[in-house]
Amino acid sequence: MADPIQTLGDLRQRRTGASRPVKQEIRDNLVRKLHAGEPLFPGIIGYDDTVIPQLVNAILSRHNFILLGLRGQAKSRILRGLIDLLDEQIPVVPGCEIHDDPLAPLCAGCRARVAREGDRMPIGWLPREARFVEKLATPDVTIADIVGDIDPIKAAHAGLNLADELTMHYGLLPRANRGIFAINELPDLAGKIQVGLFNILQEGDVQIKGYPIRLKLDVMLVFTANPEDYTARGKIITPLKDRIGSEIRTHYPATRSNGIAITKQEAWTARPGGLCVEIPGYVREVVEEVAFQARADRKVDKRSGVSQRLPITTLELVVSNAERRALANNEKIIVPRVTDLYAALPSITGKFELEYEGELKGAEQVARDLIRSAVGNVFTGVFDGVDTRTVVEWFDLGGTLPLSDVTSAEEVLLQTRGVGGLRELSERVGAALGATAPATASAIDFVLEGLCAQKKISRSEERGYAAGSEQTSRRPTRRDEPAMDDDIRIPGAKKKYYN
């Protein structure tokens, strides 16, 4: 094994030629990963045929680029994934604020040190994680924060003229030299600050405070923005957009399976304490379908978007409600039920903005409607063409099930034992013979909620599950009881009454 490089003399002996620019370094490492078939952006799901190819093309072209997309579309995560395309470490001048290359220093202090110490000067090593600088754009950001300013205190202490290069206080952009500088929510950056990025994007240098000292920085600039924010909070000025090499659009998961994979990856569902968590597939599907329903619902603001954080946090609350039920009933297995989604309303209502029609209805009612629609879609997909009349008829004949989301699994099985056809339907979703009581109770709950979503039965806080309004109207009536239906007016009445 070769001796480690410790001094500038060692570096000059081991390396020939100038160091690679950071964009070339990222390109070379990307090419190597492509040749080796290695994953480019681990953890990024659903972008293999859309965003990733455009991103690869931008990097191969050595472009600065911007990711445009609504909230919760993994934009920041993609930018942070660029760190893996940097070298593990690079040599730097020790103590330099802008990570100067020992073979080609930029700042006056480093040039003077190299001239003074020569080949004896020690070498520092900068890891790839320290080469990524990220800034969230806010209206109060100043040009000094990004580029830098003159430090009069430094000048006074050193007895230097304010025009001296050594009096500079470097901003975040120069401190990202030889690395990646990321700005999130670019439209929130004031227009005059965006102007300050012109030179670094086009000529590759910055000028601090108008002094004739230019720093030829080596940096890759990447940005994120929400396209709807251009008019809501600010805009990207046209000359800056013209200087950004590639504009890449992100999107929400195109399929429910992709959404489930993302949620499964991100949600915290493994609970300590010795309890085993088993999440049925239909529960994951319903949780994900809530987000899909919200993105398509006209009462939800499309410009704001519905973040992928909605199903992630919803699933976490669903598991927590199931955990609370298991602890209260001394159950050893945590199996969430579809009804646990209603305990997750605090998460759902905070993840979308409403249109005027939705505001009139209220966020909680909109969320309940979304859950019901999601349950109905998933239930129809599982039980399409399956005869459920046996279960429905049991309720039509006056049967009720006073169940809630805190009812123990054993109690659910006990109370539903006499419902004809219910156990057979639950077996279609995994509650076959030998399944644990919590798993069977969850499957039964899914069947009952699915029938509610299809309006074949109803559920209320007082009675639990009972016959739905449509089925109630079809029950045989006594001779002294007038028949009532949604479309039948009671003779002599001024209003329509419903049962």
The overall pLDDT average reads 86
Gyration radius from CA atoms, angstroms: 31 Å
Major sheet summary line? 5 strands, parallel
Instruction: Quote the beta fraction.
Output: 5-15%
For the largest sheet, list the strands in their spatial order: 4-7-10-1-11
- Helicity range: 40-55%
Low-confidence stretches: 470-499
Count of runs of 4 or more consecutive helical residues: 23
CATH class division of the largest domain: Alpha Beta
Question: Which descriptor suits the 3D outline?
Answer: elongated
Structure write-up:
With about 500 residues, the protein is an alpha/beta fold. The protein folds into 2 domains: about 10-250, P-loop containing nucleotide triphosphate hydrolases (Rossmann fold, 3-Layer(aba) Sandwich), CATH 3.40.50; about 255-465, no CATH class. Helix content is about 40%, strand content about 10%. The chain contains 23 helices and 15 strands. Strands 4-7-10-1-11 form a 5-stranded parallel β-sheet. Strands 2-3 form a two-stranded antiparallel sheet. The chain has a two-stranded antiparallel ribbon with strand order 5-6. A hairpin with a 6-residue loop joins strand 8 and strand 9 (about 215). The longest helix has 21 residues, at about 365-385.
